[in-house]
Amino acid sequence: MDNLSSVKEQLNQMGHLALSMLKDTFAGFMEHDRDILAVVLKNEQKLNDTEKSIATYFAGISKTDVNTQDKKNIMRIANIALDLEQIGDYIKDMVERIEIKIEEKLLFDDDAVNEYKHLYSAVEAELDDVVKALDSGDKNFAKRILGDERHVDRLAKKYRDSHTKRLFLGVCEPRSCNMFLNLLDFTAQISHHTKAVAKSLLLIK
């Protein structure tokens, strides 16, 4: 990377890659398609490599004379790259659980599937807005993500509670229940890092 504009381009690529990985993971979950999930894992490594490249670039220029505002912006851009990389980590965790689900032929009841689809849609919309904000520089997309910061957390808690009740009623098996709760938690964590990206974008000047 020769300059900051190159870094920002790589940051945009990371955003698109993270969103693509999230969508493919959901597709792999819905379709029980391990080939799709294999592609996600390859892209997760690309995400890691790009974050390391950005971090290395910034480590190199941190020793030079830069003004205070530039230092703050550098830190915020580095934080965005790290949050996007951590989104990839949670997606990888999801892929590993889904692969176990497929291998062991674990089933979710219809209510669980519909609940997860609802949670996923909310988080995909947030990450899509991050990509739009990165691409266009329009901070209104970032503001939209932060309009109701607790929305995803409330959904995740609601669906955890309802699924636990289904477990007690014998509607689902303990192994499947734990798998479902893992997916809820990982998806909620993706939302947390997405919101962290939005906050950093709003602070960049």
Question: Topology, please?
Answer:
Layout: H1 4-31, H2 34-61, H3 68-103, H4 110-136, H5 139-145, H6 151-168, H7 174-203
Helix pairs in contact: 1-2, 1-3, 1-4, 2-3, 3-7, 4-5, 4-6, 4-7, 5-7, 6-7
Could you explain how this protein is built, in words?
The chain is mainly alpha-helical and 205 residues long. It has one domain (4-203): Methane Monooxygenase Hydroxylase, Chain G, domain 1 (Up-down Bundle), CATH 1.20.58.220. It is built from seven helices and no strands. Helix 6 packs antiparallel against helix 7 (174-203). The longest helix has 36 residues, at 68-103. The radius of gyration is 18 Å and the shape is elongated. The mean pLDDT is 92.
List its salient traits:
205 residues, mainly alpha, Methane Monooxygenase Hydroxylase, Chain G, domain 1
* CATH hierarchy: architecture: Up-down Bundle
Named CATH topology: Methane Monooxygenase Hydroxylase, Chain G, domain 1
Structural class of the helices, strands and pairings? mainly alpha
User: What's the overall average pLDDT, rounded?
Assistant: 92
Please report which band the strand proportion falls in: under 5%, 5-15%, 15-25%, 25-35%, 35-45% or over 45%.
Answer: under 5%
- Any idea what the shape is? elongated
Question: How would you name the CATH homologous superfamily?
Answer: Phosphate transport system protein phou homolog 2, domain 2
Counted beta strands: 0
How many domains make up the coordinates?
Answer: 1
Q: What is the CA-atom radius of gyration, in angstroms? A: 18 Å
Question: Terminal Cα separation, in Å?
Answer: 21 Å
Largest beta-sheet characterization: none
